[in-house]
Design a protein that fits this description.
Layout: H1 5-12, H2 20-27, H3 33-43, H4 54-67, H5 73-89, H6 102-118, H7 127-138, H8 142-162, H9 165-179, H10 181-184
Helix pairs in contact: 1-3, 4-8, 5-6, 6-8, 7-8
Length: 185
């Protein structure tokens, strides 16, 4: 049974520590849209469950993200070409994020290039856009999107070497469809 927004707010509203076991348990049945961005940050480890550290960690993440190099003209060209194809191939299913807006394109380019520069042993791949999509729809700030994306990529990184990207993306989408069906439709 899915929990209500109020139940999530009660868990998130604690003064000192977020009960991660409880948050994980209630998240298994879906996360209401209004609290989804906050819950994802905790579930992915971007926000720490110790609220006394929250502001310091957030400022540090923002500063660290600003310092990552976001320039690579070769990768930028590839991303733009893939975004054009991605927009054309999936127009009817992409209501929340306008991939043609300059602001969103720049955000996507910055995040992907930052991720590649953050992990020097990773090369750009079209599948990165599909994994980034749900974070673009849900989170507001570029640094939050980046750190959630990094955390998600770390969680699936070991499988990228063992499985094909296609099978990895299909499992990822299956997971999203089961956890957040309204986002995938």
């Amino acid at each position: 049974m899915a929990c209500t927004e109020e139940e999530f707010l009660e868990i998130l509203g604690t003064e000192v520590f977020i009960d991660m076991n409880k948050l994980i348990a209630v998240s298994r049945h879906g996360i209401p849209e209004r609290v989804r961005s906050e819950v994802w940050k905790y579930l992915l480890g971007v926000s720490k469950n110790d609220k006394s550290e929250e502001e310091r960690v957030r400022k540090q993440q923002l500063q660290d993200y600003k310092e990552i190099d976001k320039n690579d003209s070769e990768i930028t060209k590839k991303i733009r070409n893939h975004l054009k194809r991605y927009q054309i191939n999936s127009k009817e299913s992409r209501g929340k994020v306008d991939l043609q807006s300059v602001e969103n394109r720049n955000k996507i380019e910055n995040i992907i290039i930052s991720y590649i520069n953050y992990n020097n042993d990773i090369e750009y791949n079209f599948g990165m856009l599909a994994i980034l999509g749900p974070f673009m729809c849900t989170l507001q700030t570029e640094s939050d999107i980046f750190y959630c994306y990094v955390a998600m990529m770390k969680k699936i990184e070991e499988n990228l070497a063992q499985d094909s990207l296609t099978s990895k993306l299909s499992r990822f989408m299956m997971y999203f469809r089961s956890v957040i069906p309204e986002l995938s439709s």
